[in-house]
Design a protein that fits this description.
Blueprint lengths: L6 H16 L7 H13 L5 E10 L5 E12 L5 E8 L4 H18 L5 E7 L7 H15 L8 E5 L5 H20 L26 H19 L9 E5 L3 H12 L3 E7 L2 E4 L6 H11 L9 E3 L1 H5 L5 E4 L18 E3 L8 H9 L3 E3 L1 H4 L2 H15 L5 H26 L3 H20 L3
Parallel strand pairs: 3-4, 3-5, 6-7, 6-10, 10-11, 11-12
Antiparallel strand pairs: 1-2, 2-4, 7-8, 8-9
Helix pairs in contact: 1-3, 1-14, 3-14, 4-5, 6-7, 6-12, 6-13, 12-13, 13-14
The structure holds glutamic acid.
Length: 438
């Protein structure tokens, strides 16, 4: 794996850049500086890296093993929190990087969590529904001793859904019941508060499914103000990725009056400078199988999408999309990162030199985990909030986080990513120092 495509190396390079910005703040005494360096060093390795081979029976009767991970990065600010990804390209390095970014992300909006991430190396499209259920249950059964409302709270990520969370809740509850039946005290007794991103019918929260995309549009609205363009139809967006995040981002962008000029999925995309209707694209994709075959715009590749003459480029799929090869070709004024880790540190420098504004992942896509936090609070209280309450609370935290980033960026003349990451890492380091265990 080349340096640029190893997401964990990228997360560590980012942390070094942030540490250089923060160091002067801890320099009042040699003792304080030493503690700061120790905290940064600790943040370079997840607290715990769990991995296993999950063996499940396929419909054919044969057994197959799948490699599975959970990285628990840091819990200084609260229980570990983060999604579970089902994807053939999942690696240990990716899960470690994603868990690190979760630690920063939770600190950005100030929700009381640390960071974690899980993953299984699998192409879920090749499994039947029953095989998918068996694999999801096997994962939850394996992870059960390590999770709980006050320990680690998993959620959906790429290719995982509310239904998968529902199976996992059930499996986790089975493991808890088994402990009780053996006369052991079950450590945790609230299975619903152990997973977020659940279906509405099983303890899910109003607004959670669309939250990441919708909250990304809250940041797009703020960005438009900063670009001095409040006439949304004059702002065009190209969105790479049409999963949960990409679709809901497209949907809410169009609803807020922005022009959705291009969308794509893993097979390719479409470009329509006059603007696409995301609902129509989704309906057509359901029949044709891919965005590129919907006939709703000029067919383009994912590489072509990155270089389109749009106002805002929105990577909403996987890591390492904006690299030293693709960054020089970008024609957008700004990049709004709805994916986790789409830009390599080297590409970041190119974007900075080219004066392309970056709204970084841990801010732009923080709406998902923030709404997960609201779901968890509701589950702990056994009280469901109406959607308006969820969305208005989400908007307050997103707008506040954006304003904080912009203020630090302008007063300290830092790129958006560094301004956001520095705020987040400082909150985590301060929590570690307050604990006094360094
Ligand atoms: N997987 C989402 C993320 O990357 C959500 C995590 C969560 O809700 O815990 O932020």
């Amino acid at each position: 794996m080349s340096h640029q495509s190893d997401p964990y190396q990228n997360a560590l390079v980012q942390l070094d850049h942030v540490a250089a910005v923060l160091r002067p703040l801890y320099a009042e005494s040699a003792g304080q500086l030493k503690k700061f360096e120790t905290a940064i060093k600790r943040l370079k390795t997840p607290d715990r890296m769990l991995k296993t081979q999950l063996k499940i029976q396929l419909d054919s009767g044969k057994f197959r093993k799948f490699l599975a991970f959970r990285a628990q990065h840091n819990a200084a600010r609260g229980p570990y929190k983060g999604g579970i990804r089902f994807h053939p390209n999942v690696t240990e390095a990716e899960v470690k990087a994603l868990s690190t970014w979760m630690t920063w992300k939770c600190a950005v909006t100030g929700i009381p969590y640390g960071g974690a991430k899980g993953g299984i190396v699998v192409d879920p499209k090749l499994l039947s529904l029953t095989e998918l259920e068996r694999l999801s249950r096997a994962y939850a059964a394996w992870l059960a001793p390590w999770i709980g409302p006050w320990v680690d709270v998993p959620a959906p990520d790429v290719n995982t859904t509310g239904q998968i969370m529902a199976w996992m809740v059930d499996e986790y509850q089975k493991a808890q019941r088994a402990k009780l039946e053996q006369g052991q005290t079950a450590f945790e007794v609230n299975p619903l508060a152990t997973f977020t991103g659940k279906p509405l019918g099983l303890g899910g929260s109003e607004g959670r499914e669309e939250a990441t995309g919708l909250a990304g549009v809250f940041t797009l609205i703020k960005l438009a103000e900063k670009l001095s363009q409040t006439d949304h139809k004059k702002i065009s967006v190209a969105i790479q990725g049409f999963g949960n995040v990409g679709y809901w981002f497209a949907y809410h962008s169009a609803k807020a009056g922005f022009k959705v000029a291009a969308v794509s999925d893993s097979k390719g995309g479409i470009y329509e400078p006059k603007g696409l209707d995301p609902e129509q694209v989704l309906a057509a994709k359901k029949t044709t199988g891919s965005v590129g075959q919907t006939g709703l715009g000029k067919v383009i590749t994912n590489a072509e999408l990155l270089a389109l003459p749009v106002t805002v480029l929105v990577p909403a799929a996987l890591e390492n999309v904006i690299t030293t090869e693709t960054a020089p070709l970008i024609r957008a004024k700004a990049v709004l990162e709805m994916a986790n880790g789409p830009t390599t540190p080297e590409a970041d420098e190119i974007l900075a030199t080219r004066k392309i504004e970056v709204i970084p992942d841990v801010l732009a896509n923080a709406g998902g985990v923030t709404t997960s936090y609201f779901e968890w609070v509701q589950n702990l209280q056994g009280y469901a909030w109406p959607k308006t309450e969820v969305i208005s609370k989400l908007k307050v935290l997103m707008d506040q986080s954006f304003d904080q980033m912009w203020q630090i960026k302008t007063t300290q003349k830092l790129p958006g990513r560094l301004a956001t990451y520095a705020t987040a890492v400082k909150r985590v380091v301060d929590a570690m120092l307050l604990r006094g265990n360094i």
